[in-house]
């Protein structure tokens, strides 16, 4: 079984903000594979089903971004999954341009509080991640204000495509492995 967790903040006021691209990617997967993500478990909205022959749990933590690790750890413990190979976390990255993806097997939090929380609660940095580029913070902006802002119309088009690619990347991680997923999805997207 795999847990695919998209990070974001619960509540309508945060819907479709830069910080919620993880939630948006879970929505893409749920729709594509007809999985209802509506059951509360482990302080998250969850939905279980099958994707390309793999048993999966789609997860949207309800703990707010900075406490994502609490929810992820509770679910990982409950389902007895190996966090290094059966957990895929999808989240926003301000160091990547809008629409660009980056897949990693491990690494630091890079200043992302949701990832910092997961590393703290899992006790290590080794878990599969899909970073979705949301663009660099403009000069003079507060970081929190920026990640909680919405995309411009032009950015949104790139991000919509990136969400579909991030969903496909999660499937590729499960079916073809990390190296194949990195080779396919870490390539630079043309502007």
UniProtKB/TrEMBL annotation:
Gene Ontology annotations for the cellular component aspect, listed alphabetically: cytoplasm
Report the active site residues: 19 (proton acceptor)
* GO BP, one annotated term: rescue of stalled ribosome
Q: Please, which domain of life does this record's source organism belong to?
A: Bacteria
Site (Discriminates between blocked and unblocked aminoacyl-tRNA) location in chain:
9
Enzyme Commission designation: 3.1.1.29
Keyword set includes Transit peptide: no
What InterPro entries does this protein map onto? Pept_tRNA_hydro (IPR001328), Pept_tRNA_hydro_CS (IPR018171), Pept_tRNA_hydro_sf (IPR036416)
As for what it does, the entry says: Catalyzes the release of premature peptidyl moieties from peptidyl-tRNA molecules trapped in stalled 50S ribosomal subunits, and thus maintains levels of free tRNAs and 50S ribosomes. Hydrolyzes ribosome-free peptidyl-tRNAs (with 1 or more amino acids incorporated), which drop off the ribosome during protein synthesis, or as a result of ribosome stalling.
- The protein's name in its UniProt record: Peptidyl-tRNA hydrolase
């Amino acid at each position: 079984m795999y847990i695919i967790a998209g990070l974001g903040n619960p509540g309508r006021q945060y819907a479709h903000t830069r910080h919620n691209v993880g939630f948006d990617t879970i929505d893409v997967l749920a729709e594509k594979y007809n999985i209802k993500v509506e059951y509360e478990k482990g302080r998250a909205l969850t939905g279980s089903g099958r994707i390309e022959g793999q048993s999966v749990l789609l997860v949207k933590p309800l703990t707010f971004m900075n406490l994502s690790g609490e929810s992820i750890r509770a679910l990982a413990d409950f389902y007895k999954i190996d966090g290094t190979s059966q957990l895929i976390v999808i989240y926003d990255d301000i160091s990547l341009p809008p629409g660009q993806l980056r897949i990693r097997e491990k690494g630091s939090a890079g200043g992302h509080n949701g990832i910092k929380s997961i590393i703290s609660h899992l006790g290590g940095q080794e878990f599969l991640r899909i970073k979705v580029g949301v663009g660099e913070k403009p000069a003079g902006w507060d970081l929190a204000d920026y990640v909680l802002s919405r995309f411009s119309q032009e950015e949104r088009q790139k991000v919509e495509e990136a969400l579909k690619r991030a969903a496909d990347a999660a499937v590729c991680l499960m079916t073809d492995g990390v190296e194949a997923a990195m080779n396919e999805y870490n390539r630079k997207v043309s502007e």
